[in-house]
Amino acid sequence: MPTRKSRLVPSIADDQLVALEVFKDLIKDAEGRREYVNADGPDGKQEVYDRHRNQLDDERLQTADYSRIEDPARTLLERLSDSELALLSDLDAAFVEAGLSVTANPSPLMVH
User: Fold this and answer.
1) What pTM value is reported for the model?
2) In this predicted model, what pLDDT tens digit does every residue of 1-31 receive, in sequence order?
3) Cβ distance 68 to 19 under 8 Å?
4) Among 59, 49, 42, which residue's Cα sits nearest to residue 20?
């Protein structure tokens, strides 16, 4: 499993990316994933997210808002199991390790 060297905090003021960065930090270890998965419903998951966010040292992440991870993405994340969240986190760590990044782009990544 790749190790995450550092968090990627968006240099731009994009609330969604900052919120997602806190989520990625939350699920990077087994304890965070377990707490998130075992939380009672969306409100419980938000409480876990908020508690984790408040423990982070990076001031840029302190204002992250869980609700900025908008549906359907948030609902899909809330339905994932511990092992699925672990896979998601491992993939993210591998992408970071490989130097892959996404630049802010006003157009959608996929067009339907």
Assistant:
1) 0.80
2) 444 444 555 444 588 989 999 999 999 999 9
3) yes
4) 49
